[in-house]
Write a structure and sequence with these properties.
Number of domains: 1
Shape: globular
Radius of gyration: 14 Å
Largest sheet: 5 strands, antiparallel
Helix content: 25-40%
Number of strands: 5
Number of helices: 5
Structural class: alpha+beta
Distance between the termini: 14 Å
Strand order of the largest sheet: 4-3-2-1-5
Order of helices and strands: EEEHEHHHEH
């Protein structure tokens, strides 16, 4: 299982998980309760219930680089181009825009 922390403007917004059943995105309760909480995407509006999908949510998949930049990432980090979650965690720590993706630490998973 792979888990990534999703940040919106440097504030932890939620968690994205990949397992045998697909992908789950869940907003953190603290984020939902905070003043000024905003959805990370129009396709993932704020809600307490998790979002589930068999494939990586299009919003997150769209953050992954394409073309020659994707080729460089695959070669340098030795990541299979079909492993979208690994690419997302490796390449999207400092994206253009308000959302960033970072591998979740062990403490965050507990």
């Amino acid at each position: 299982m792979k888990t990534a922390a999703i940040f919106y403007k440097d504030k932890r917004a939620g968690t994205l998980t990949e397992d045998a059943d697909g992908y789950t995105f869940r907003y953190d309760a603290g984020y939902l309760a905070s003043d000024g909480a905003q959805a990370v995407s129009l396709t993932l509006p704020l809600r307490i219930e998790p979002y589930k999908s068999r494939v990586l949510f299009p919003f997150f998949d769209g953050l992954i680089p394409e073309g020659w930049l994707l080729d460089i990432a695959e070669r340098n980090w030795k990541i299979d181009g079909r492993d979208r979650m690994a690419l997302l965690m490796a390449c999207c720590k400092d994206c253009i825009g308000a959302v960033s993706v970072r591998p979740a630490t062990e403490e965050e998973n507990d």
